[in-house]
Write a structure and sequence with these properties.
It contains 7 helices and 8 strands, in the order H-H-E-E-E-H-E-H-H-E-H-H-E-E-E. The chain has a single domain, classed as NADH Oxidase, CATH 3.40.109. The strands form 2 sheets. Strands 3-2-1-4-8-5 form a 6-stranded antiparallel β-sheet. Strands 6-7 form a two-stranded antiparallel ribbon. The two termini are about 30 Å apart. The structure holds iron/sulfur cluster (SF4). Iron/sulfur cluster binds next to strand 5.
Length: about 220
């Protein structure tokens, strides 16, 4: 049976409902094995107060955000988890190495690394969510800068607020690309009510009429 991360990698590769050939399945399984060997996943998170200062306006720590989609998703949340996570420089180096000799493997590796990072984030979110449930608090889906109308420029604020350069070795270029490449910054709303959010986010959630839906 195909495991979840393999399914995700197949989805990122754009197969949709088409059958995947044995050769590609072999490359996927090799890529996950390579990732297990060279990824050094690290993360940091902190909880900040979240103030709704106006329509589509939010203040989180020193960050002032104007975003309709984020405002909607964080409705009713008085605090948020800010997080940064990375698979480390080893994954970048491996991808660079393969890109010089084997394009097919590089494409599959890209998809597998994205699935691997998502799996790591899901597990981290489960762990944070479990801790918060003891305090009768629940998490909304992850929301990253660049998603919807949440300005990518806020990535810089998040890196600074979490001091990611020092804590997990995560920085960014002038064009807002994260370094290492296989990294993520995100925020997650903390709510007093249990919306039973889907770990894979609103796109995978069946509650199409949810007022907090991020899309
Ligand atoms: S649509 Fe689903 S995942 Fe999204 S906020 Fe609503 S309950 Fe949570």
């Amino acid at each position: 049976m195909t495991d979840l991360r393999t399914k995700e990698a197949i989805r990122y590769l754009g197969y949709g409902k088409h059958a995947v050939d044995e050769g590609t399945l072999g490359l996927i399984s090799d890529s996950f094995r390579d990732l297990e060997a060279c990824a050094a996943a690290k993360s940091i998170y902190r909880i900040f107060e979240c103030e709704h200062t106006g329509e589509n306006e939010l203040q989180i720590g020193k960050m002032n955000i104007t975003s309709r989609s984020l405002g909607r998703n964080l409705k009713g949340c008085g605090s948020v988890v800010l997080l940064g996570a990375t698979l480390g420089t080893g994954v970048d180096l491996m991808m660079k190495r393969f890109s010089l000799t084997d394009m097919a493997k590089t494409v599959v590796l890209q998809a597998c690394a994205a699935a691997y990072l998502e799996e790591y984030l899901d597990q981290l979110q489960e762990k944070i969510g479990e801790e918060l449930r003891q305090q009768e608090k629940w998490l909304r889906p992850r929301f990253s800068p660049g998603y919807g109308d949440f300005d990518i420029h806020h990535q810089k604020d998040i890196l600074k607020m979490l001091d990611t350069a020092k804590t997990i070795g995560l920085t960014m270029t002038d064009s807002y690309m994260l370094t290492p490449v296989k990294s993520v910054t995100a925020l997650i709303g903390i709510s007093d009510s249990d919306e039973k959010c889907h770990i894979k986010g609103c796109e995978s959630c069946g509650k199409t009429d949810c007022i907090y839906r991020r899309n």
